[in-house]
Task: inverse folding
């Protein structure tokens, strides 16, 4: 008899350098051990998939689509349209490499390639120097 492995989840919160909460979401269906990069990628894929099921005037996510404007509820789209997750993922990874997006876990910085056990942590915090904007999403 085989058993399905339990999947983990964790909260990912976005905040400004000043500590203001900008958003966040629960990232589910994570393996017991995963890289921080894969947590970020999973989150963005999930946000884009949810938006693409019914594109509307506001996208709620970590990365700002190219033609959107920051709004109190997310990013206001000029024209609702399907988004491409890979372009938003590339923008987030580039921002992390440039230090514009810093990731913190248990009050310490973490790198994208660091392996973590999501069940052992309360939340992953994305500290944004400024909005991360996808070049052509």
Result:
């Amino acid at each position: 008899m085989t058993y399905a492995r339990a999947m983990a989840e964790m909260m990912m919160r976005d905040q400004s350098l000043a500590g203001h909460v900008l958003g966040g979401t629960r990232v589910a269906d994570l393996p017991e051990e995963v890289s921080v990069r894969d947590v970020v990628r999973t989150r963005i894929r999930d946000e884009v998939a949810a938006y693409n099921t019914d594109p509307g005037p506001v996208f709620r996510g970590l990365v700002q689509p190219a033609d959107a404007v920051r709004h109190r509820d997310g990013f206001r789209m000029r024209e609702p349209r399907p988004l491409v997750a890979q372009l938003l993922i590339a923008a987030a990874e580039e921002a992390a490499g440039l230090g514009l997006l810093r990731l913190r876990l248990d009050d310490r910085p973490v790198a994208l390639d660091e392996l973590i056990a999501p069940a052992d942590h309360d939340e992953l915090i994305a500290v944004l120097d400024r909005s991360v904007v996808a070049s052509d999403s």
About this structure: Strands lie at 8-16, 21-30, 34-35, 58-59, 68-71, 74-77, 101-105, 108-110, 115-116, 123-128. The first strand starts at residue 8 and ends at 16.
